[in-house]
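Appendix B: complex inputs.
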Amino acid sequence: MAKEIVLTINGLPHPVRVEPDELLVDVLRDRLWLTGTKKGCGTGDCGACTVIMDGRPVTSCLVLAVAAEGREILTVEGLAGLAGERRSTGERRPTGASLHPIQESFIEHGAVQCGYCTPGLLMMAKAILDANPSPSEEQVRAGIAGNLCRCTGYSKIVEAILAAGEKMAPEGGTE
Amino acid sequence: MPAIVDYVRPSSVQEALSVLETASAPVRVIAGGTDLLTRVRPDAPDPVVALDISALAELAGIEREAEGLRIGAATKLADVASSDLLTGVWQVLACGAGQVGSPQIRNLATIGGNVCNASPAADTIPCLLILGAEAEAVSPRGRRRIALDEFFLGPGRTVLAKDEILAAVYIPEPWPGAVATYLKHSPRRAMDLAVVGVGVLLARTAAGRFEVRIALGAVAPTPLRATGAEALLREAARLDDTVIHEAARLAAQAAVPIDDVRASAEYRTEMVRTLTARALRRLSTNLA
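Resulting structure:
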């Protein structure tokens, strides 16, 4: 029995008709064309689908789309100053060309190889730094424990997150 | 294997219980969904109605009460892990909750789900058992309290009736000066089920003896207490190496593990012995 719901993503409402068993990750990617969020496993084991929901990082493959209604959802598309886009208008309008400091840091530190884990790690990094602006290396490693990376060996990712924290601290917020 | 054909998010426990009674298809309670959603397939043969209890006020939050602590079943594991109310020996539950899955999983998963999913390897259960926890179940027939020692029937099976929902777990005031630890043995520091889980709580009695609870995870069809080891320790005058060695041996005897992809039964038995001894040594130092 399909339901009409409204998902609030990156500050914008997205009305969508979904089946009760549709996962948030699939609705983001296949229905709303927000393909920045990746689906690596579908069982919550890899973290590639991480989004931030009501301020908490969660694996969107373990969230029913119907359960995500009424919540604030931040995806990787929302990091870069893209205000979001509506498929119905086909508009793709960046409000600014700048990247988020975390994204800049990942590039500067060579923390992106194949890129498939990257959106999930960017969102997790944001969540870590939002909660703790000056984490230790151990705290960063614990924070990304739910994100698998096949390519980098994690060192560059950890460096990038620590460096991003320094870029964003002390009074600079995370936006 | 279930397929979710409908989704209901009730706004009260009454409404939730009513759905359990009157739904047209079998109902599966969902809170965080971190276990259920790994098992559903769109084309699976068993249609179910997903009953989302995650927002029910009565199931939310951790509260200090006269007799101890009440933890609502829908409390997220991340919140259990970081709660200021889990003071003193209750910290062991925060420790166990904080080792489930990953940060992302803990932001969805609930303590009620970890308990009702009833995996023999669940991390919160040995911690709850050594803290002497009780479960509170609610149904159209009223409420009942169940000692958690009596809650589990087998892998994935609890004593909850089809029309019952777990509302909360209650943790009583501990013995004065009690200390506890939960040791989870797993290949990685996150994202793994426990290969072996050992929870130990130790306290001195007024008479200078020991009060103790030992709970084992992942080594039997349900989490279980190592009662033989406990009995030995209650008779001991001192926790010296001989006593600890013997208690650990008895704990290993209580384990009835299986061979599976994560470990052999033989290895698990050995690790019960090792971790029980390690926990007792550490705690006896803390207690001294």
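The interface with chain A takes residues 3-7, 9, 30, 32-34, 37-38, 40, 42, 50, 52, 54, 78, 101-105, 107-108, 188-191 of chain B (CB under 8 Å).
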